[in-house]
Amino acid sequence: MRVEINADDYGLTRGVTDGIIKAHREGCVTSTTLMMNGLSVEYAVEQAKKNHELKVGLHLVLTWGKPILNNNTSLIQSNGNFKYTSSYRNMAPPLLEDVEKEWRAQLEAFRKTGLTLNHIDSHHHIHAWPPLVGVILKLAKEYEVPVRYADSLKDYPDICWTEKLWTEFYQDGVTDNLFEQLKKENVLSVEVMTHPGFVDEDLIENSSYLYTREKEVELLCEMRVPEWVQLK
Asked: 165: which strand partners?
């Protein structure tokens, strides 16, 4: 089984970035996805260029912080932050043309880093929101990059990075029996979504998912990878 262990939120804060790098260098994290509107993007890019085996993708954002473009008024609230939150499914969908413009700007900002774009996913899985599927399909094909699997994308296996997304390594599911659980899955490829990181002041101010990130770092560094796993 091909297993991709991806760390979300790269560049969100310096502490998160350091935790991801540690979980890669000393553990089993194989890839990460960069938030282009994060608080520590330049530092994250510098660290990625020092760790050439770490694959870096783009963590598309529409539900946290400020947009790359500041003229898409349909996406933002009065303070300039995105108006969408993790509860976006209860909100009216945005103008698709504005979403495409913003995500294209995030893709282009990633390109300017000089890093190779490995894949695309999104903060709070908003790329998989059915109203936005057409946008992500268009961008994935144009930029020739695979996208994180979601049920809303199951009819487009040609653009999906893996056959399945494992989301259980989160909160109370952060345990050391990850590979035992994965072995039960009847798929050839799976992505494990993780959120390792060290808690710093910026993270406390911007996220509700805190000290379990440090537990993730610890476990991802301690886990032994079974022989049946093709860790890519």
From this structure: 191
The structure's pTM equals 0.95
Is 127:120 a contact under the CB 8 Å cutoff? yes
Q: Quote the CA–CA distance of 79 and 19 in Å, as a whole number.
A: 30
Contact 212, 192 (CB under 8 A): no
Cα 135 to Cα 127, 131, 149: the distances in Å are 8, 9, 15
Pair 164, 149: CB distance under 8 Å: yes
User: pLDDT for 203-220, tens place per residue?
Assistant: 999 999 999 999 999 999
Q: Which residue ranges form the domains of the chain, and what is each CATH number?
A: 2-231 (3.20.20.370)
Token representation of residue 62: 């529409």
Query: Angle at which helices 14-25 and 212-222 pack, to 10 degrees?
Result: 20
